[in-house]
Each structure stands twice: as structure tokens, then as C-alpha cells.
Write a structure and sequence with these properties.
This protein has 416 residues and is α/β, with parallel strands linked by helices. The chain has 2 domains: 2-126 and 134-141; 149-414, Rossmann fold, CATH 3.40.50.300. It has helices spanning 2-13, 17-21, 33-46, 52-58, 72-92, 95-101, 104-125, 136-148, 160-165, 186-199, 213-225, 229-234, 240-247, 272-281, 303-319, 332-338, 362-366; strands spanning 154-155, 170-171, 175-180, 204-208, 258-262, 287-291, 323-329, 369-376, 379-386, 394-401, 406-414. A hairpin with a 2-residue loop joins strand 8 (369-376) and strand 9.
């Protein structure tokens, strides 16, 4: 019975507050309203759920289920669905009586209103909510989780100053956008972020639909081992013994994954459905990299389709508790407007602005953090264009030697 399974799960996991998240109330229970009420009162007074022995002793009719394997989210949705069906039956029971007494036009209007109400009930039963007024225990649990595992809540960047500006790095669940002009090295920066995260113990799922598998893998080797990228692709390394020794560290004993999907792995293109399916399969991922938002398959053509994709990505990153790094191209026209004389490049390299967005502004609006990047002749600039911390507008100067895998800090610049 779904009611006993849910209440048993809540008791065993001391997670009564989770019921509020999924809109589960006393009215959703048919057989165990009294048990629900007791547990609620107990939690209110003692700030924890009663033991199963306590509940079973008090309510002889309660069928306690030890070791329920289904998760609470599923159980809550099932009980809401059953409650919605019961409510629908109660409402539809009036159809026969109203048909007899109402004028046809009045009856039709009433029937339409009832259908709309049932549709709204069904939609509400599948939604989630956080009741700030009553979820103090849940917030305490969040705080303690963050206190105990802060190192696993933030992904540090390869650049210590940027990590500091971000208040510890990229937060799990966030949407991060990296914008840059064409062919300036944004994919290298994205790969650098991915490899740093992996070295810190975070699982990575890296979509690189523009590159072949060998090209992306060799970029990783260059960034981590500083092997000449041109020579490694051509099989002309002068230090190939060192490379072979380096490769021995990548074997079946590796516990933290770095999954790569390139053009060979995406015969139908990259879509939000593909990403969600992969995250369901690979549950040990904390960072998703999408190298080329414009290369994704969107449900509709044009700006509306891209906006819808961006919205879905934001939901996916939050739902699966992964940080999502989306790499997008700034239009060439914006670069021409920002162009400066060669002599002035000795002073600064112009970085893209968030107003230089390409096909859709949704990617700017949806992202919690926006980085813009530009590079010329080994001199790079990374602009923190949007973030939660009071460091918006700061710029990090970088030294870039992509072919040997070096992207290092030079000095931070504060625009304000």
C-alpha cells in the first residue's frame, strides 16, 4: 500500500519535511490520515520523526514497511495521483444530477469548468514546492550538508583568482555560460575547466559535437600533460616514452569518470533529451560541458527554439544537481564593433559584453554565472560578466599557450 510505504520511508529517513516539498498533505491520505497527523505533531514538538516502534505500538492498523526501496519523490507523486483520482471521482459524481436539473447551456459551462479544474489538479499534483514558512528543519539539513561537504558543492576553476571571485567556484546545480568570439580558444578554456574539475574528484560529462573524439582527447592530454598538441595528433612526439608512461595512469582502476561525447557519438545531434538520458545513466557526474550551444538540436527553428533549449538546460542542471558549463559564440559583428587599433592591443584586448549575445538573450538570463573571453597572440582576458558575488566586471589576464596546454593567470583587473 502506497500510504504505508511512504510513511514508513519518512520515519526511517527522518524526512517528514520532504512531504511539503511535494505538496503532500493530510488530505492526500485515505487510510492513514491519523498516522500522518500524529507524525506531523510529533515532528513539530520534538524536531524529528518518531521511531517505527513508537508508531506501530500506537496504531495497530498501521502496516509498517521496512526497507522501502522506492524513493520519496516517486512515492509522493503516486500518492498525489491517487488523491487526484479520488477527487476527480467525487467531482464527476455530480454529473448525472446536474444534467437533470441544469439548462443545457449552463450544464455545458459547468462541465467545461470542471474539466479545467481537474486538469489544474492533475498539474498541481505533479509539481513541487518549498514552503519557506514551514521548512526550517529542511533548511537546517541543507546547511549541515553544506558545512560537511562544501568541497563537493563547489567546483574550483583552474584560476585561483576567479575561484575566489566566485566565492569558492562553480556551484553544483548552476548554469554557467562562457561567451567568446570565433576561434579565440573558448573550447580550450572549457576543457581546462573540465580537466581541473576532474582532477579535483568531480565526474565530468563533456559534449564536444564540433570535434572528433581524438581531437578532444588529445586536447585533454595537452592540458594535463603539456604534450605538444600538433605533434601528438601527428604521432611525432619527441618525448613519446614520457607520453606512454603518462597514459598508464588512465586505466580501469579510475573511479572518477570523464565521459566524452563527440560527433561520432551523436548521430542525431545533441539535444536536451540526449543530455537528460545520459544523466539518468551516468549518476556519478557533477559537471556537464556543452561545447557549442549553437550546435545543439533545438525543438524549433530560430530564437524561440534556442530560448526553449536554454530554459530546459537550466531545469536539467538543477534537477540532476550538476553544474552546467555552456559554451556559446559571440557574433562576429560585435567583435568588429569592439575592434581597436593594433597599437592599442598593447594596453588591452577587448572582451565580449553580455549585450553582444547572439541568437537569443535567454542564455544570458538563465545563466547564474557568465564569463566572456578573448585572446590574441597568447594574451587572454577572462571577464566575469555576471555572478552572485559582488565581483561583477572584474577581468583576469591570462597567458595562453594552447598548443602546449598552458593557460595561467597573469594579473587580475578591476573595471570598477
Amino acid at each position: 500500500m502506497i500510504e504505508s510505504e511512504l510513511l514508513s520511508k519518512v520515519i526511517d529517513e527522518n524526512s517528514f519535511h520532504t512531504l511539503s516539498k511535494y505538496n503532500v498533505t493530510e488530505g492526500d491520505f485515505k487510510s492513514y490520515k491519523h498516522v500522518y497527523s500524529y507524525i506531523k505533531e510529533y515532528v513539530s514538538e520534538y524536531h524529528e520523526t518518531p521511531s517505527y516502534r513508537n508508531v506501530v505500538a500506537k496504531f495497530k492498523d498501521f502496516d509498517y514497511k521496512p526497507e522501502v526501496h522506492d524513493n520519496i519523490r516517486y512515492l509522493c507523486r503516486e500518492i498525489k495521483a491517487k488523491a487526484t483520482k479520488r477527487a476527480a471521482v467525487d467531482r464527476l459524481a455530480k454529473v448525472s444530477d446536474n444534467f437533470k436539473v441544469m439548462h443545457p447551456e449552463e450544464f455545458t459551462k459547468w462541465l467545461k469548468e470542471e474539466a479545467e479544474a481537474l486538469e489544474a489538479m492533475s498539474s498541481f499534483s505533479a509539481s513541487t514546492v518549498t514552503n519557506y514558512a514551514s521548512n526550517g528543519l529542511e533548511r537546517k539539513e541543507w546547511y549541515m550538508e553544506g558545512k560537511e561537504s562544501r568541497s563537493y558543492s563547489y567546483i574550483t576553476t583552474p584560476y585561483p583568482t576567479l575561484t575566489k571571485w566566485l566565492g569558492g567556484g562553480f556551484e553544483i546545480g548552476d548554469y554557467i555560460l562562457l561567451l567568446a568570439y570565433t576561434n579565440r580558444g573558448k573550447s580550450w578554456v572549457g576543457s581546462h575547466i573540465g580537466n581541473k574539475a576532474h582532477e579535483e574528484g568531480f565526474g565530468v560529462l563533456h559534449y564536444s559535437p564540433e570535434l572528433s573524439k581524438k581531437q578532444q582527447v588529445y586536447r585533454n592530454d595537452t592540458l594535463r600533460g603539456h604534450f605538444d598538441n600538433v605533434k601528438i595528433r601527428r604521432g611525432e612526439l619527441t618525448n613519446e616514452d614520457q607520453y606512454f608512461e603518462y597514459l598508464q595512469g588512465f586505466n580501469d582502476e579510475a573511479e572518477v569518470p570523464y565521459y566524452i561525447k563527440t560527433m561520432e557519438d551523436l548521430p542525431k545531434g545533441l539535444s536536451t533529451d540526449v543530455i537528460e538520458a545520459d544523466l539518468q545513466m551516468y549518476d556519478n557526474v557533477q559537471l556537464v560541458i556543452i561545447d557549442g550551444f549553437n550546435l545543439m538540436q533545438h525543438e524549433r527553428i530560430g530564437r524561440d527554439g534556442m530560448s526553449a533549449t536554454s530554459r530546459k538546460l537550466r531545469q536539467i542542471f538543477g534537477r540532476y544537481k550538476v553544474a552546467g558549463l555552456v559554451i556559446h559564440q559571440t557574433p562576429t559583428g560585435a567583435e568588429k564593433e569592439q575592434k581597436v587599433d593594433e597599437d592599442e592591443l598593447e594596453v588591452e584586448i577587448p572582451v565580449p559584453q553580455i549585450t553582444d549575445y547572439s541568437e537569443t538573450i535567454a542564455v544570458i538570463q538563465d545563466a547564474a554565472t557568465v564569463l566572456t573571453f578573448n585572446q590574441k597572440d597568447g594574451r587572454g582576458r577572462l571577464h566575469l560578466a555576471k555572478c552572485r558575488e559582488p565581483n561583477v566586471g572584474k577581468i583576469l589576464d591570462l597567458r595562453c599557450n594552447f598548443n602546449l596546454g598552458y593557460i595561467t593567470e597573469k594579473s587580475p583587473v578591476d573595471l570598477f
